[in-house]
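Most newcomers find our protein records easier to grasp once they have seen one. To make this concrete, we reproduce a full record directly below:

===
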Amino acid sequence: MRLHQLLRSLGASGAGLPDPEITSLTDDSRQVTPGALFVAVRGESQDGHLFLAEAARRGAAAAVGEAPDPGLGIPYIPQPDSRLALAQLAAAWHGHPARRLVMVGVTGTDGKTTTCCLLHRILITAGLPAGMITTVNAVIGGRVLETGFHVTTPEAPAVQGYLAEMVRAGLTHCVLEVTSHGLAQHRVAACDFDVAVVTNVTHEHLDYHGTYADYLEAKGRLFAGLGECPPKPGAPRRSAILNLDDGSFDHFSRVTTAPATTYGLSEGAQVRGEGLEGGADGIRFVASGKGYRVPVASPLAGLHNVSNCLAAFAAAVEALGISPELAAQGIREMPGVPGRMERIALGQPFTAIVDFAHTPNALRRALETARSLTQGKVITVFGAAGLRDRAKRGWMSAVAAELADRTLLTAEDPRTESLEEILAEMAAGAEERGGVEGESFWREPDRAEAIRRAVRMAAPGDLVIVCGKGHEQSMCFGEVEVPWDDRVALRAALAELLAVPGPEMPRLPTSR
């Protein structure tokens, strides 16, 4: 692709600049090969402008950045926001694939991945060739691709690459999980969303956004942008799917630029859940809307998942025109999400679960669900991430002190912070809610040993729930990602306890 052709996606003509053939597009100077277009992006820890000279030495044919022209002898295109430029260029590089797909974006604090998986299953059940990109994986036809170690929307070039693969595979719909970082950093710019869905907005990521209002504003960009992209032939009417039960409703109803449909348990919700029931075998309710009342059942544990099911149901029925009966069938057929209330069973006489809960709200919901699944003790293991929202550390421990019988506070991506100090903040939160160290909660820096101790504490009929990592495949110590999977660790601990074959316990820098 020629440079000038790419620049049209930025609203630039390229007049006065050479028009070299561009062979690749990247924001990583280490990936520059001869003929590449290098985009200098200011990151949280690195500034891509510092690597412009290296990109030129590696053979970059042109560069884009926010700084003045560094005079490296290659075409340089200044832009007010190079992250936005990167997304626009990536979309152009791949032929604007989102314009050939019905795009559904799902945002929120908790429940995004589950809602995406539910909606994707509904689309497949309805016979629509649909793909999905979540923080767990990308699903393109029969292929399942990992999207990264930690929970965030992939960078814009990866997102556009996945969308292009979907178009080539003949898919017509895409369900995309949209994080606040993904919105704030323009990773999902040029995705041309047709439908925007919100689950809920609670306390999270204030380390990055600063205030709850800024966090809410970042989420709101998905809805404010619904009217910005050109119409797509054959696509459904642009729609916003809003949670009437959530405190975010008023904000999103003001900023959305498309007609809104509400869902929830409240009177007045256009898609309402009624007659809720929940137990060890899942949840049941009736989805009620204009002209229909449909029984819905799901194997997902926890009544909080009724809201996720309603969000997916409302998007499918009210925005995408799928029949209520097919939507209910799709929800029933969706077996679960990796690392979300995932049971681990090796024959032990108690229940063992791995869940991704890593916010105060999600931990409360996970522990409430755990309490409903057992008559015995609830024993939980979790930590708090370093270099992230510090306020939630004590808050989460207070939730555990309230709802769990035994709590082991442990490592969870300490990064460059002191793990000892993180655990001290968590312990203080537990004590403020009446927790007693050595009786109801313990500090165990090594996550492997914390999981071992939890399963050794469990008596027949109890429930052990390990929270915070879910599906993730690594843990960050310092600046190093160490391989780690809570599900493998829990299986290893159970195998040791039962003296049966099982995986080897992963080792961490904290292991003794």
User: Anything to note?
Assistant: Residues 94-333 form a domain with the UDP-N-acetylmuramoyl-L-alanine:D-glutamate ligase fold (CATH 3.40.1190.10).
